[in-house]
Each structure stands twice: as structure tokens, then as C-alpha cells.
Amino acid sequence: MHSEIQIEDICTKNVAGKILFVLTCRIVVGEVIIGSNMSLPFSAGLDMTIPIDEIKMLGERRIEIRVHCDDHEEIEFLLGLNLNGEVLVVE
Question: Can you give the residue range of the structural domain that contains 49?
Fold first, then answer.
């Protein structure tokens, strides 16, 4: 079964030497757990998936999803997807 989240904000963080891609979002349907995969629209008809490494609860249906990135190039690529406001599938 899949879940859906709506992205409210995106930022990056550097915590204890980890480079994080951080999505603040609202859970639309279902639940989101660590280890789930998020589908990101890459181009028309093509999605890519990335694993959810950390979750921070912000409220009843609001969460912060954190994805560990290897370097700043990966962060720049993810930021370039322009995901603000998008509804994403999580499985």
C-alpha cells in the first residue's frame, strides 16, 4: 500500500557531518516510516526513488523527512527538482 505526502518546504542541513536533504510535508494519505521509498518526478513519465533515512514528527499529520546525501552535487540535483507543493508517493 502506498502513502502520499504534500511538500510544504525544502531545505538542506549539515548535521554531525551528514549532508541532509530535508522535506517538510503533510501526510495526505497513509503513513510514512523510515526505510520507505519516496518517488520523485524526474521528467515527463519518469520517476526516481530515494529512501527515507530519518523522520521527525512536527504535528499530527506534519513531518520532516530527511534523506542522507553523499555530496553537494546530489543536494543540488534534488533541489533542482523543484518539489515545493508537489504530492509525492511513498511506498
Answer: 3-90
At 37, list the grid cell. 521509498
pTM across the whole model = 0.92
CATH of the domain at 15: 2.40.30
| Percent of residues in the chain assigned helix, strand, coil, to nearest 5 | 10, 60, 30
Residue 91 vs residues 1, 8, 23, 42, 76: alpha-carbon distances, Å = 7, 19, 16, 17, 24
The β-bridge relationship of strands 87-90 and 62-69 is unpaired
What would the pLDDT profile of 50-84 be if each residue is shown by its tens digit?
Answer: 999 999 999 999 999 999 999 999 999 999 999 99
Cα(23)–Cα(53) distance, integer angstroms? 12
Separation of alpha carbons 11 and 65, rounded Å = 11
Which residues lie closer than 8 Å to 72 by C-beta, 6 or more apart?
19
